[in-house]
Every structure is written in structure tokens, then in C-alpha cells.
Amino acid sequence: MSEAASSRRIVLLRHAKADWPAVPDHERPLAERGRKDAPAAGRRLADLGIPFDLALCSSSARTRETWKLAVHELSHRPKTVYEERLYDATLGDLLALLAETPDDINDLLVIGHNPAMRALADALAGQADGDTLTRLSRGGFPTAAVAVLTFSGSWKSVEHGVARLTDFWAPHE
Fold this sequence. Notes:
By secondary structure, the protein is an alpha/beta fold. The protein has helices at 32-48, 61-71, 91-99, 116-124, 132-139, and strands spanning 7-14, 54-58, 79-83, 107-112, 125-128, 146-152, 163-169.
């Protein structure tokens, strides 16, 4: 595999702002602000121009709703897998999921939850472009935020510090 062929991107999208009705946490829907921010996150994803090969989305109601509203902004709808293990995931769970990604996938989108999204971005970002790491550190990983990380090699080689944080965006930044 050539160096160019082994260049990969991981894009992390935290679900949009959720409401707090009297339902189990897994079933919480988006709040009004979340229903406005999710399409904005989708437009940001579209502006990045990344041809996602696969989207892994948590099985929770708020992540599914975020993805449903965001994906309409993309010109190409990637294959989507609703992954139960993304709900309530730890950093270790996310690293294990990444290691399971087939090597024919170059551009992966993960739609999930904090604190795991922030932990994964922090753990993988050994380097960063411009002030992206400063903005991530200062603002945390707010709802509907998007982080783009690039790395070379196989998915099984993903480990702490392997990636470069090339973009970080949040709707209310």
C-alpha cells in the first residue's frame, strides 16, 4: 500500500443539543436548538468535502436524530451503521471500534457522545494545525461540534498521538 493510499481521516461529530424529558437517557430526543444545530453541522461536513466511506452512529435517539438532520446536507450519503457500543463508550471502546474498521475504509465519520468524543480527539491528536487544539482544549467538545483527524497506516495501528487534528468546528464558537 502506498503512503497516499494509506492516508485516512476520522471525523468526530458529537450529537446536537438534547432535551431532558422524563424518558430513559438512551431515548432522549434533540432539543429545539439541537434540531437547528444538526443541519449546521451537516453543512460543515459538506463544506469539508470528505467523501465518507462509512458513518458509525450511536444507537441513541439523539445521535440518530442528529445524523438524520445532518446527512441531508451531504451530496453523498455514506453507508451508516448504528453501533450500540458507541452509546456510553469509553476511550478504550472507541479505540477498539476504530481497530475493527476495514482497511478499505479511508474516511470514517463517528457520531457519538461526550466525554468519549473529547477523549478520543485528545488522545489521537499528537499534532494539530493552527489553533485547532487550543480551540478544542478551551471549548471542550460542545454539542454538534466536528473534529477532523488524519493519520497514515491501517486502522489497527490507531493509537495515542498517531493523528493530526486538522479542523475543529462548533456551531456556537
